[in-house]
Amino acid sequence: MKTNVSLKPYNSFGFDAVAKQFAEINEAHDLQNLIKSGALKSQNVLILSGGNNILFQNEVFDGLVVYINTKGIEILRECENEVMVRAQAGEDWPDFVRFCVGKGWHGVENLAHIPGKVGAAPVQNIGAYGMELKDSFEQCEAMDLATGETKVFTKEDCHFGYRESIFKSELKGRYVITSVDFLLKKDAPLHLEYGNIKAYLEQNGIENPTLQQLHDAICAIRDAKLPDVKQIGSAGSFFKNPVIEKAQFEALLKDYPTMPHYDEPNGMVKVPAGWLIEQAGWKGWRDEHVGVYDKQALVLVHYGGGKGHDIVELAHKIQDYVEKKFGIRISPEVNFV
Ligand code: EPU
Predict the structure, then answer these.
(1) Is residue 234 annotated as a catalytic residue, yes or no?
(2) Angle formed by the axes of helices 211-225 and 93-103, to 10°?
(3) Is residue 74 flagged as an active site residue?
(4) Domains plus CATH for the chain?
(5) Which pTM does this prediction carry?
(6) Deepest in the core among 114, 149, 211, 298, taking most CB within 10 A?
C-alpha cells in the first residue's frame, strides 16, 4: 500500500488528483487479501481500472484507490464454430480486441480502439458502431468487496442497457469484476451498416472487407474523430445520447428538420448529444485549460494545467444551454468521483 500517490497517470483526462492511499492488484488473491485485511472498511474506496471514464472533481481523493492490473487471456473451450475466451480484468481492451481479431474470432471487432480495460467494459456495457459488449458477453466473475468471495454473473444477472449494467446501479460499489468470459464466433456477418464505416471502406477501395480490415477501418475512423488521450486529456463521449418521447421529437423536428435520430424499440427516439451540443454553439469552444473537442462535440477535453472542477463547470453550462434550446437535459456518461 502506498500513500499520497498522484492519479495523473491513472485517468485519461490527466487531472492531477492525489490518492491518500493506493493499492495495486496484480493477482485476484491480492484483492482478496486486501479485503480480508479490513483495509476497505471505514474509508472511501475507489476501484480504478483504465481510468478512461472517470472525472476527479477534487484535488484529493480522501480514501483508498484500488488499481486493478491483473493480466491473462485463456481459451476455456473451443469447437468448430465458436470459442469461449476468458480475459482478466486488467487486460487492455483494445489489445484484447486486436488479439481476437488476429485469431479470426468475431464479436468484439466493432468495439475496436475503445480505450479502457476488460473489467470496466461490462460496467457500462461499452458500445460503438452498432455493437455492444453484451452481444458477445457470456458471464463474468466478480469479487464481493465486503467478504472477498467471488460470484459469477450471467448476462441476465447483469441487467445490461444502453451504457448501463447492474454494476453501475443496484450493485454500485459492491463488487469488482475480476474476469470476463466472451463467446466469440469463428465466422459471422460483419456489421458495416453503422456510422461512416461503409463510406470509409468505399473511399479506401475495400469492397468485401475482412474482419481485420473492418477492425482497422474502425480504428482509423475513431482516430479521426476522437482525441488521442496521450496528447489531449478526455474521457471519450462525456454525455449519453438522450432518449426522448416521440411527441417531443416530432415537435423539435418542425424547427430542426435535419436533426439526426434513431428509433428505439419502445416508441422513444434517441438523439445524438453531439449534434445538440454543436447546434447549441459549443463545438470547438475552449479556454486555456478545457474545451469541447472540435471534431466531436460529445467529447470534453483537458488541454493541461486545469482542474477537474473546470470540466464540471463546463459540463453544467453545456447542459443548461442544450436544455434552454431544445428542452432536453443531457446527462453525463462519465463517472464523477
Ligand atoms: N454529430 C454532430 N456533431 C458532433 C458530433 C456528432 O452533428 O459534433 C452528429 C453526427 O453527424 C451523427 C450523430 O451526431 O449524425 C452521431 O454521431 P457519431 O456517429 O459520432 O456517434 P455518437 O452518437 O456521437 C456514439 C458513442 C461513441 C461511439 C460512437 C460510434 C455514445 C454516448 N457515444 O457517439 O462512444 O464511438 O457512437 O458508434 O453513445 C464513448 O462512449 O466514449 C464513445 C466514444
Answers:
(1) no
(2) 150
(3) no
(4) 2-68 (3.30.43.10), 73-185 (3.30.465.10), 233-336 (3.90.78.10)
(5) 0.93
(6) 298
